[in-house]
Amino acid sequence: MAFNPIVDDSKCAGCEECVEVCPVDVFEMQGGKSVTVNADECLGCESCVEVCEEDAITVEET
Q1: Domain 3-61 has CATH 3.30.70.20
Q2: pLDDT band at 1, cuts 50/70/90?
Q3: d(CA 43, CA 15)
């Protein structure tokens, strides 16, 4: 099963928590916001969802 992590740019506060917590480096900061750069590596653990206080991240099964 594959996963697709999505960052809602309008909600992202740029705290970098998702970048720090992701065990496989799915996210990186670009222009002060988190961006999904390695979606293929996502494990579906949803650590990013749990740590995001802005509810800006969702992980969909594909």
Answers
A1: yes
A2: confident
A3: 22
